[in-house]
Design goal:
single chain, alpha+beta, NADH Oxidase, 7-stranded antiparallel beta sheet, 7 helices, disordered N terminus
């Protein structure tokens, strides 16, 4: 069972197996909710680029679990000193611990996408960009699954919240500075700029709460409380 004050060292996940979602790539390209589909030639090109992007991907991640020191609707403070401000407190509230993470697919897909764009191959570049974004999401999902396994290993009564990223879910993008100050993202080749953008671009950072299953299961997702129903990133 998790004890107050307990914490864990950083865990690095290398060579994360990912499977790119064709449907998510289609949605990123504008096919998604309208029900439209690419013609056969375009669909074949997309398939080949998904395969190429998967070859270029170097999925890695780092995470570390911290005890929660204090929390209210407007902040979460961890025992290591990291303090996150914003509505995130509403979602992490029932958690006794929080996992901070950074996941990436590396710079190779981004570089190839940009090369295609420079060469005038706009569709190819756009598809590879979408593949990179989906790959980063798949790497982040792997972190979520690993943290969930950590939680249940600690005790069957523990579960995890959805993951929340700076810039979404009631956290300003500037909270990236706090997150990167609390975890050694350079260990997986990721840095953050002065304007809080990650490099490589195809990276995902965030927080995952760990708490009593009955409490965290009641949280749901922030999307259920958000009125922006046309958001491409909406989770039903």
């Amino acid at each position: 069972m998790i004890q107050p004050g307990s914490h864990f060292g950083a865990t690095i996940l290398n060579d994360i197996p990912i499977r790119i979602s064709r449907e998510d790539v289609y949605r990123s390209l504008g096919y998604g909710r309208s029900g439209g589909r690419p013609d056969a030639g375009t669909a074949g090109l997309i398939e080949s680029l998904i395969a190429r992007g998967t070859e270029l991907a170097r999925p890695r991640a780092i995470y570390r679990i911290w005890p929660v020191a204090s929390v209210d609707a407007g902040h979460v403070e961890l025992e290591g000193g990291a303090r996150f401000r914003g509505a995130i407190g509403q979602y992490i509230g029932p958690a006794s611990h929080v996992a901070l993470f950074v996941a990436t697919v590396g710079p190779e897909i981004e570089a190839e996408s940009q090369r295609q764009m420079r060469d005038g191959n706009l569709l190819e570049g756009a598809v590879l960009d979408a593949v990179g974004s989906d790959g980063a999401e798949r790497a982040a999902e792997a972190v979520s699954a690993t943290v969930a396994a950590d939680a249940t290993a600690i005790g069957p009564q523990f579960a995890t919240t959805p993951r929340y990223s700076p810039g979404y879910c009631g956290m300003h993008l500037t909270q990236q500075r706090t997150l990167f100050g609390a975890i050694d993202a350079a260990a997986v080749g990721v840095s953050v700029s002065e304007v809080c953008l990650m490099s490589p671009i195809k990276s995902v950072s965030g927080l995952i709460g760990i708490g009593e299953r009955l409490a965290v299961d009641d949280i749901g997702t922030p999307c259920q409380r958000c009125g922006k129903t046309d958001c491409m990133m909406r989770r039903e």
